[in-house]
């Protein structure tokens, strides 16, 4: 088996550590320096796919659906959300690490079908918590694909998204029939192995 080649490293803002992009053959992984395991992989993205479909499918026929996605990652959540929505939907992606956006534009975008090229997508270099906190009755769905779920990995302040105040802000930011969806990746480590 061939070894992993380090393609690029980027600093996570606010002393969050260092993200590293690796490639082996046709597979890409993103890791956090000093943390065991992969943060995300181009080969295994079922939870991201499920997040995009389950949260957005109810709005497939809604005119001008407005969706907020916290975290770009490798673009799989965004890609499945786009595939689940009408052509007049608007998807705002909050990504704190500009280098992740650059990786998606230049290196790994093909893995998810280049979702950043879709005209419905707007990238915001912003904390998703700030976008949620400044919104009222704005989004049909909020998809949180930050870190690995309710346990802040790169940013401990991401934990605030899942507190009573954070969930209250999300509730206020959603429209009456809105959906808040959280990536289930964090559950995987707690599931029994079969």
Describe this structure in words.
The structure is a single chain. By secondary structure, the chain is an alpha/beta fold. It has one domain: Rossmann fold. 24% of the residues lie in helices and 27% in strands. It has five helices and nine strands. It has a five-stranded parallel beta sheet. It has a four-stranded antiparallel beta sheet with strand order 1-2-3-4, with helices on one face. Helix 2 links the parallel strand 5 and strand 6. Helix 1 (46-56) packs parallel to helix 2. The radius of gyration is 16 Å and the shape is globular. It starts with a strand and ends in a 12-residue tail after the last strand. Mean pLDDT is 88; it is low at 148-156 and 186-194.
Layout of strands and helices, then pairs:
Blueprint: E1 5-12, E2 17-24, E3 27-32, E4 40-41, H1 46-56, E5 66-70, H2 76-83, E6 90-94, H3 98-108, E7 121-124, H4 128-133, E8 139-144, H5 164-173, E9 174-182
Parallel strand pairs: 5-6, 5-8, 6-7, 8-9
Antiparallel strand pairs: 1-2, 2-3, 3-4
Shape: globular
CATH topology title? Rossmann fold
**Number of separate domains:** 1
Indicate the CATH class: Alpha Beta
Order of helices and strands: EEEEHEHEHEHEHE
Compute the number of strand runs: 9
Q: For the record, what is the CATH homologous superfamily label?
A: Vaccinia Virus protein VP39
The termini sit apart by: 25 Å
**Mean of residue pLDDT values:** 88
Computed Rg: 16 Å
